[in-house]
Amino acid sequence: MRDPSFVFLANAWWLLPATILIAGITYLMYAKKNPWATYVSRLLGALRIIATVIIFLILLNPLINHLTQVIEKPIIALVVDHSLSMMQHEDSINMNQLLVEIDEKISGLNFEPWVFNLEARTEIPIRFDASSTNLNQALNVGFESLETRNLAAVLLISDGLYNQGLSPSYRQSLIPIHSLGLGDTTTRKDIAIKEVRSNQVVYQGNRFPIEVYIDATGYTGIKKTVILSDDDGIISKQNLVLSSQMKVTFEMDADKFGLQHLRIKILPEADEINTVNNEKDLFIEIVEGKEKILLVASAPHPDIRAIRMALAESENYQTQIYIPGLTKTLPRDTFDVIIHHQAFSDNFPTLNYSGSPTFLYILDKRSNLNRLYSKTNITIEQSGNQQDIIKPVYNPNFTKFELDRSYVDKFNDYPTLKVPYGSYDLGTHEILLQQRVGNLTIDKPVLSFFDNGSSKYGVFYGTGIWNWRLQELAMSNNASLFDQIILKSIQYLSVQSDKRKFIFKPITPFFQSGDLIQFTSESYNDIYEPIAGNRITLKVFQGKDRSESIFNFIGSDANKTLSIGTLGKGIYFYEALSVSNGKNLSSKGQFIIKDAQLERATFTANHDLLKDLADHTGGRFYKKNELDSLIRDLQDSQAKSILHSIQDFTKLIDLKWLLFVIIIFFSLEWFFRKYLGSY
Q1: Binning pLDDT at 50, 70 and 90, where does residue 558 land?
Q2: The whole model's pTM is what?
């Protein structure tokens, strides 16, 4: 059924009385005696009626319906692997000639080819320069781009080698995925370091393992030496007899501080073709000792154990407990965060703390709220010593950090907690956990944080949180939510506020070779307002080679990145210099450029993966010399064009030519009335 030509947004029946009224008024105008013939009156009256009805019709704001028939050809998505590994046995000219031939033959079959590379839709010619291959993601891009179109089939043109993402071989699809296998499947003799595993961050003074996974094809039984070295020379060697797959483990002491560049290497054999995969680089950051947490309490309590168990989930924290009468020695270290359990109670121990630690205060019914105010400016007007029984609720507007949203439903099962009953004045505190009484969430805190740039602390407004952890363990066999609350709170409190007036840092500490090296810059005046226009001199150098590369920039108050181009692999150090209000400012740091070598790890194409992908999706696998067979199969497929009806609406008021019609009609009426002698 065809839609009507007009769709009225107002009631169309108003047009009938309006037309009658307009015709009546026009009749009264021209019914009297005029100095022209009757037919002229009828003509002039018609002009006025038509122009006035058009104006009223525009006021009713109707929509004009346009219905267009469009034929959409079936689409073939050509997903092209444009990674560097495709160039190991072909050159880009031959590859693009092949793509042009495929594109032309598919177009000749009344199909519409859409060309994609690994990242997005593109056009031929294609540059084969991708440093990594994610075939599964490339297929996702094609399917998502053509989700609402007449997609008939997908043709994946690849050597079957992928080094990122999931394997596409077991992908399910209602649309057939054909594959065209390129590259050489001949197995060559090769010694390859497939993978090196180690912690990226190691604490200074610890001993840590480095696991090296080796594949040896055609060289089993040969004696080789695996060498572990850094920029200063060889650290360790291991002699081994090669097998097809094996693992070698090195133990290393983290005795140096900062970023360390390590290299694993096996000397190649004389007849090895691919020697690039005989060595791998490894970058490890060796940091100072663990952050120290002190938990102080006036008496033993189950909360203390629950907090300590949560902190034990992270290797980043070293926890010490002090309870008078139970702990024999006073804590003398410099601590990063201090937790006061049963804070501000009359018998709370008085200790002197070195450094500038931040605090997490945990209140109980014996806490003196006047002391709380003197330390934090938090006012709680409590009625006597009354306690309120509440449940915690996550505040989604909290901005300091986030809890995993998939866990927050566990709050519904948490036991109740006793907190001070009364009115709260928190000032500029931000609430992470709110109170819920019955089914009502109220704007009162269970856990809140304060940070003004110079001081930072948190306040838990009740004890008994050990019940939360116990209940969560009973319900789900883990305490993910409770541990996250404690760990993220301590992590937030342990991070010192950055009050530097000049901050210059790379957008990431790790780059891949070929990436643009980019920095961000922030500059502030004495009252920490952002400023712009300051000159910045950046010096970049490597550890041993102290020759500097110097770059000059102008600071910006916008969120702008500053680029210095590309650099070779290695650890780089930088120093940025600037001047603000006559004061010299500097910002130093380091960054790493990794040579991933993902596309040079193997020369052997993996056509088995492409065959599995085609088999699982109802497609077929083709070799390069079977292109004619591919075209015949596409021609014999049942893909059909689709007839689409595209409906479009236009507002009558948007038709500008109607304005000219109205003006012309009224102008003609006025002209002839005057010309024929009417006043």
Answers
A1: low
A2: 0.53
Crossing angle for the helix pair 302-311 and 480-494, nearest 10 degrees?
80
What tokens appear for 248 in the block? 């070698």
Which fold, 502-594?
Immunoglobulin-like (2.60.40)
CB 398 within 8 A of CB 409: no
DSSP secondary structure letters along 10-49: S-GGGHHHHHHHHHHHHHHHHHS--SS-HHHHHHHHHHHH
- CA 165-171-177 angle, to 5 degrees, is 110
Contact 78, 104 (CB under 8 A): no
Distances (CA, A) of 186 to 32, 98, 404, 466, 502: 103, 22, 48, 62, 57
338 three-state secondary structure: strand
| Helix, strand or coil, per DSSP, at residue 344 | coil
**CB environment 612-633: b (16+ within 10 A), e (fewer):** bbbeebebbbbeeeeeeebbeb
Q: How far apart are CA 458 and CA 465, in angstroms?
A: 15
**DSSP annotation of 138:** H
DSSP three-state, residue 61: coil
- Which two structure tokens, joined as six digits, stand for 293? 């947490």
And the tokens for 524? 């502030």
Per DSSP, helices labelled H in 108-217 are: 135-145
52 CB-contact burial (10 Å; exposed 0-12 / middle 13-18 / buried 19+) = buried
| Burial class of residue 127, CB neighbours in 10 A (0-12, 13-18, 19+) | exposed
Residue 175 phi, psi (nearest 5):
-90, 130
Token duo for residue 360: 């997490």
CA proximity to 502, closest of 538, 475, 456: 538
CATH class (in words) of the domain with range 291-494: alpha beta
Instruction: Measure CA 418 to chain center.
Output: 39
Q: Are 433 and 410 in contact (CB under 8 A)?
A: no
Residue 518's alpha-carbon distances to 498, 505, 563, 566, in angstroms, are 21, 9, 4, 9
Report the sign of the C-alpha dihedral through residues 308, 309, 311, 315, in that order.
Answer: positive
- The answer to whether the beta carbons of residues 293 and 358 sit under 8 Å apart is no
Distance (Å, whole) CA 354 – CA 344: 20
Task: Please state whether the peptide bond connecting residue 125 to the residue before it is cis, i.e. omega within 30 degrees of 0.
Answer: yes
Identity of residue 27: Y
Region of 26 on the Ramachandran plot (φ > 0 left; ψ -120 to 50 alpha; else beta) = alpha
Pairing between β-strand 245-253 and β-strand 207-217 as defined by DSSP bridges: antiparallel
What does the block give as tokens for 73? 């050809």
Per-residue pLDDT tens for 216-262? 888 989 999 999 998 888 999 999 999 888 999 999 888 887 778 88
Handedness of CA 268, 273, 278, 283 (dihedral sign): positive
Out of 17-31, 160-174, 207-221, 560-574, the most confident range is 207-221
190-287: which CATH architecture? Sandwich (2.60)
- Whether the Cβ atoms of residue 261 and residue 232 lie closer than 8 Å to each other: no
Q: Report which secondary-structure segment, H or E, holds 476.
A: helix 466-476
Direct distance between the N- and C-terminal alpha carbons of the chain, in angstroms, rounded to an integer: 53
Does domain 74-182+605-636 fall under CATH 1.10.357.10? My reply is: no
Both tokens assigned to 285: 């950051």
**pLDDT (tens digit, 9 = 90+) per residue, 375-397?**
898 999 987 788 899 999 999 88
Rounded-to-integer distance, Cα 404 and Cα 384, Å? 38
Give the amino acid at 35. P
